[in-house]
Input
Amino acid sequence: MKKKMTDLFDDIPMEMLDEIRAGQREQKNYKKTAAAILVVFICLIAGTAGYAAAYPEQFRQFLDGSGSWFGLMLNQSYETRNEDYCLRVEDMLEDGDEKIILISVEGLNEDSKRELNSSETFPTVQFHSDGGGSVWLYSREDGKKYFFASYDTGGKNCEISYAEGLEMLCDEDWLAEHEEELLTLSVKIRNKDHKVITIQPNRNEFPDGIDFRRIEIRRMGVKIKGYSIKKSEEITPGEITNYYCPTVTAVLKDGRKIRLIEGNMGYEADEVDEKWPTGGGGSDISENSKKKKIKVEFYDNFQKIFDIDAIESVVINDMEYKVR
Amino acid sequence: MEEREILERMKKKDETALTELMTTYETYLSRVIENIIGRIMTKEDIKEVVSDVFYNIWRHADTINLEKGSLRAYLTVSARNQAKNKMRDLKKNPVSLPIQEEDYIEITDFCQGLEREERIRILAEALRCLKSDEREIMLRYYFLYETTETISKSMGIQKNTVKSKLMRGRKKLKVYLQERGICQ
Output
């Protein structure tokens, strides 16, 4: 017969209660172990897409619904388990620095399923390289959760870990104590079918202090590297940076103009046929005090795949460059 | 407050001893009771249960054996029992019950047939197999009905750690009891 745990505890010996110390204890101030080199933002989008359909529907729904991303999928999967949980990398997408990983965590018994259902723990993803990204809950079903990890990093090797209660910055004691529970997958992300259009703009094409050296257009996003200067103290809503950033437009072989990056140097109002949907853009800024130059890297990720084979030329602000 | 002295005075029906006991433990017992029935009863009802607890210990002071547990422990057990009795009477809406009431364990017929003293002995052994912090968390959660957040603050550890220790504690307890034919 079933008995409530609280009723089972009716029968505890009284002296055990005297072991419970009254009052509040100080939180131990352990040295934090940097479980991540990347700065990671974890956000919770709980079940926005409803209950999970079977993989690879996960990717199809998340990306653009057309399945056009499947060519970029690496068909790599990894799995590890203990008696409570199964941690699995279902698959990955990779395009240059842009990496998207679909991770699942499944409870393998009633206790762990119940724990997982009420848990707020996310898997941690650790790339041993510069960059940034986020992990979020994509969907859930009873006893199983799917997470997406999206990172912009040059790194190829990462570790994905899960244990109930795990956080990105766990103290050493916690990690030591939970060593047996910690599931970790070491993942190596393969290169696959890389396509990139690289534009190196003419020198002296930009105002003093600004020098964009390299613009890379891939199927999953655009990256601009070079030097720039600050335009305003704060980022204007809708812009990816408060530094001067060029407008990037693709001219297709059929003559259509597609805006890929909305800049802020006065060319953003130029007419185009379509603005390609983007999201998750940002910038990396590093100042070189000796050279008095500010090195910048702007990037914006596409929300649906862009067929870069269709590009005839690329316009940076108002200067057109033919694609070779 | 010297417990033996207080108890001796209560046995002699010295009302000032009861007043001292109430001053020391009223807040603590209110919290224990509130953990269990705070969502289904008013503050006044909780005060009434606290009064009943003190009245009971006053009436049964002769039966208290401080070798078995402190006055505080006796009061805690009494408060919990009375609050649980109230909860059984009033639980019309399951949503109002503490979340601890949703955790079950499958008990064998063999366990049902055991004398209470034997059950206490086995449960004590099982709890002694846990690490001291796991045991404290289990007791706070299932006996005192404290939330994981309260336990986290009281013990100075992260809430997630409380949850993982609870999970481990449950698992160890279950394995121990399974090995002894107490649960399935």
